[in-house]
Write a structure and sequence with these properties.
This protein is α+β, with helices and mostly antiparallel strands. About 30% of the residues lie in helices and about 40% in strands. The strands form two sheets. A four-stranded antiparallel beta sheet has the order 3-2-5-6, with no helix packed on it. A three-stranded mixed beta sheet has the order 4-1-7, with no helix packed on it. The chain starts with a helix and ends with a strand.
């Protein structure tokens, strides 16, 4: 090595090896980094919604009279499930912990006339609004 190279290294080396922050700041930065990673780990480890039931099925009534909402279906064991809700005018009623599946539904008016009838696959939380068409 020649003298110029040695002199340049002696001038540049202290600048490169000088600590940019003190030890306390480095420790705090490491704590923040680990805390952030643990948040991602917790969010990733939450179980998926692979349950056999839905949390709630709610029905809102926007008609001028009360209605009766009935569903009939089968759970995964093959047992028949029947549920019925009477919903007042401008009211809302909910079924909780309903087994997932395909159900036949029927909406009956106060005068016993069938307003709507059909089938629906319930596989997630839902709010059904019944209103004039």
């Amino acid at each position: 090595m020649n003298l110029k190279t040695l002199l340049a290294m002696l001038l540049v080396l202290p600048i490169l090896t000088f600590a940019q922050s003190d030890l306390q700041n480095v420790i705090k930065g490491g704590e923040l980094l680990l805390g952030g990673l643990s948040i991602f780990k917790v969010a990733k480890s939450e179980p998926k919604n692979d349950s056999k039931t839905i949390k709630s099925l709610c029905v809102k009534n926007k008609l001028a009279e009360k209605i009766t909402f009935s569903i009939v279906g089968k759970n995964q064991e093959g047992d028949e499930v029947k549920k019925e809700l009477v919903i007042p005018k401008d009211g809302k009623e909910c079924l909780l912990e309903l087994p997932k599946g395909i159900y036949t539904y029927e909406i009956v008016l106060a005068n016993k006339e069938i307003y709507k009838k059909g089938e629906y696959k319930f596989d997630d939380e839902i709010i059904i609004t019944v209103k004039e068409e």
